[in-house]
Amino acid sequence: MNSEIRNLEPKIVWNHFADLNAVPRPSKKEERVIQFMVDFGKKLNLETLVDKVGNVIMRKPATAGMEDRQTVVLQSHLDMVHQKNSDTNFDFDTQGIKMLVDGDWVTADGTTLGADNGLGVAAIMAVLSSTDLEHPNLEALFTIDEETGMTGAMGLEGGILKGDILLNLDTEEDDEIGMGCAGGIDVTATRNYAEEKTPENSEAFSITVKGLNGGHSGMDIIKGLGNANKIMNRILFDGFTNFGLRVSEINGGSLRNAIPRESFAIVTVDAISKEAFLLETKLLVNTIKEEFATIEPNLTVEITKINAPEKVLELGVQEGFIKAIYAALNGVYRMSPDIDGLVETSNNIARIIVKEGSIKVGCLTRSSSESNKFDLANSLRSSFELAGFEVNFSGEYPGWQPNVNSAILKVVDNLYEKLHGEKAIVAACHAGLECGILGQNYPKIDMVSFGPTIRGAHSPDERAGIASTQKFWKFLVEILKNIPKK
C-alpha cells in the first residue's frame, strides 16, 4: 500500500510522510517519533535539540543570497489522533499507518491517517533535507502532545527560538490562510454511585449507536453532525418511567477532540415491558435517523438481547445523570459577531463512561472569546453539579487573537493571489492551533497558518488531497523565497 504513496508528487513530501507514518506516534507516547526526528536531524548534520518537555528543534542556515532575510520558524506537531473503526484490527502503539490511494485522496485502512499534522511535519522535513530550495535561516519546531492538551507548546520556554516569523502548517483547507484560532478548556464531570442488584424479572439488552461520521470537534462542529453520546442518551431518556429501564454500563466516544462516532450501553428493562421497549425504541430510532438522514446516512442503532448483568446503576443517580447529559449543551453555543460564518463558542460531549460504581463525562469547550469560553464551561458545570457531580476544569489554553496588520500575512496573502489568480480566504478558525500558546512566550513573533486540504480529521475517514498537497508544497516553497529582509 505505502509504496504507491511514495510515487506521488511531490515525492520529497510523500516519502517523508510515509517514513513518518511508519513510526507509532500517539499523543503522550511520542518517545519513538522524537528519536526518529532527532536521528533525521543528525543525519543531515543540522543543529538538533530536544527541550525539557520533548519538543524537537532543528536549525538550517540560509541558502546563498538569503542571509539578510528574517529568520523563519516552520512549526507542526508530531502526535496524531488515534481513531479506528470498531471492526478494524489495529494497534496504534506498535503498528505504522496503512495508507492507500483513493482517486485524488490518500486515506488509511480503517484508521486515522495522521495527515493532521503529519503532512506539515513531512513538508518541513522536505525543506530541511532539500539541496536546491531557496530559503532564509530556518528553525524547525516539532511540538508534542498537541492533540491531548498542547503540553508541548505550553512547555516551550521563551528564548529558545530566535525566529522573527512563524509559519504554522496545521490548517486543513488549501485556500485558507489562518490568522487566529479558538482557545479551549476541558470540562470533566465525575461521580461515584452505589451499584444495585439487577431487579428480578428483568430482560437485558446491549444498545449500539454507530455509523456516524465523527470528525474534528472544532472544525466540524458547525456541521451539526450526530454525537453518539447525545443520541444514546436520547434513547435512554424516560426509559425508567416507561419500561423500568436500568443502566448497567455505558461506553461512549473516545477522544476529547473527536466528535463521538459510537456509543455502547448495557441496560435492563422490566420483562413485562420488553415488547413495548423494543417497539417504542424502534420508533424513536427511526425518528432520529430521519432527522439525520442527510448528514448521517450511515447511522445505525442495534439492540440485542443479552444475559442480564449482576449490577445496575443506582436509580436516583441514573435519573440525574441522564437529565444532566440532556441539559448539557453539545454543538455551537455562539457564532462570532465579528467574523461571518465563524463559530465563536462550542462544546463537544466527547466521552462518557459508566462502569463499576463510577461515572465520568469528558467535554472539550472551545471559544475565541475567553469570557464566553468560561460562560459555557460554567453552564456545563451547573448542569452536572445539580445532578451531584464533581466538575473539574483543566487543560485550559488561550486562543490566537487575529492581527490584521501582520506583515507576513500580507506577504502570504499577496503570494497566494499571484500564484492562483484569486484571493485566499483569510480567516480565524474554530480549531485549537498552537499559535496562541506559542505567542505567550514569543509575543513579537509574526504568525500565519496554512496547509493542504484534509477531510475527516480525527476520524477513520480522514483523507488528504493529492493535488492539494502539490499546491501546498508549491505555496510553501514560494513563501520561503519571498521572506522580507531584516
Describe the structure.
The chain is of the alpha+beta class and 486 residues long. The protein has two domains: 2-182 and 399-481, 3-Layer(aba) Sandwich (Aminopeptidase), CATH 3.40.630.10; 185-397, Alpha-Beta Plaits. It has helices spanning 2-6, 11-21, 31-43, 115-129, 151-155, 228-236, 239-243, 274-291, 315-327, 370-385, 407-420, 435-441, 466-481, and strands at 47-50, 56-60, 72-77, 99-102, 105-108, 138-143, 165-168, 176-181, 183-192, 196-197, 202-210, 246-253, 263-270, 300-306, 311-312, 331-335, 343-355, 358-367, 390-397, 425-429, 446-449, 454-455, 463-465. Strands 9, 11, 12, 13, 14, 16, 17, 18 and 19 form a nine-stranded antiparallel β-sheet that branches. A six-stranded mixed β-sheet has the order 1-2-6-3-7-21, covered by helices on one side. Strand 17 and strand 18 (358-367) form a beta hairpin. It is an enzyme of class 3 (hydrolase).
